[in-house]
Amino acid sequence: MIVFAPDQYQLIDFGEGRRLERFAALRLDRPCSAAENVAKSDPAAWHDVDARFERSDGREGKWICRGELPERWNISYGPVTFELKRTEFGHLGLFAEQAANWDWIARQVAASAEPLNILNLFAYTGGSTLAAAAAGAEVVHVDSAQNTVAWARRNAELSAMADAPVRWIAEDAVKFVKRELKRGNRYDAVVLDPPSYGHGPRGEVWQLSKHLPRLLQLCGQLTAGRRRFLLLTCHTPEFDRAKLGRMVSELLPAGRTTATQMTLESATGRQLPAGVAVRWQS
């Protein structure tokens, strides 16, 4: 179960296609497809939100704020401090359901007798990168968006890890992995959190249903002979834990594969589905 300090993050309630969360002092109301067709457990809790995100066109939308709110603010989880901000996509720079995976990554790194060399693909604002670095790993952090890589580096600075052994790369994930293979570079572990759809910095198209199997094959080659673990997380509804678990176990048969449903627990103990995590260990 994911446990943030109570003054840092809390899922207050969810239902009717939305979720109500508290990030430090701010209470935010956002759309949530996993909360469709379920009722809110505490309707009164939704009355005094600080900001509500409304989608206006596709994935984008706008925040409706009550009063003056900070443009940026921070929360922490373990050794990592995250800078948060409200984006036009309704995101904040943190996916709280990943916290259990950050803990798992840190345990794998700490259990190794030698420092691990880890590749983090679709690395977003650096939660997995900094959890691994704090535990003693060397990390290559890859995300296609230069501004997101800059955000992750700010998180490293806020976490007193500006000098940690992390290489920060703004590049298309598939292109980077292919280039690493040609260079002869190899890794002990790979972490990846691919979106359903996306674009690289030069217009490269990413489609999870089409490109994920090949990327996993390449990651298998990149870690051949020294693979310690692989972590794949996914928020695409068509890819449930059985399908993703089978995909990883077939590509990497010589190890233990565990596929689990990621969840967030509300203040009243209700479980909100929040994607799938597949963990492979040697």
Task: Present the secondary structure layout.
Layout: E1 9-15, E2 18-23, E3 26-31, E4 51-57, E5 60-65, E6 72-77, E7 80-85, H1 99-111, E8 117-121, H2 127-134, E9 138-143, H3 146-158, E10 166-170, H4 173-183, E11 189-192, E12 197-199, E13 205-207, H5 208-222, E14 229-234, H6 241-251, E15 256-265, E16 271-281
Parallel strand pairs: 3-4, 8-9, 8-11, 9-10, 11-14
Antiparallel strand pairs: 1-2, 2-3, 4-5, 6-7, 12-13, 14-16, 15-16
Helix pairs in contact: 1-2, 4-5
Can you describe what's shown?
It is globular and about 55 Å long. Helix 2 links the parallel strand 8 (117-121) and strand 9. It has helices spanning 99-111, 127-134, 146-158, 173-183, 208-222, 241-251, and strands at 9-15, 18-23, 26-31, 51-57, 60-65, 72-77, 80-85, 117-121, 138-143, 166-170, 189-192, 197-199, 205-207, 229-234, 256-265, 271-281. Helix 1 (99-111) packs parallel to helix 2 and helix 4 runs parallel beside helix 5 (208-222). The strands form four sheets. It has a seven-stranded mixed beta sheet. A five-stranded mixed beta sheet has the order 1-2-3-4-5, with no helix packed on it. It is built from six helices and 16 strands. It folds into two domains: 9-85, Sandwich (Immunoglobulin-like); 96-281, Vaccinia Virus protein VP39 (Rossmann fold, 3-Layer(aba) Sandwich), CATH 3.40.50. With 282 residues, the protein is α/β, with parallel strands linked by helices. The model has no long low-confidence stretch (mean pLDDT 95).
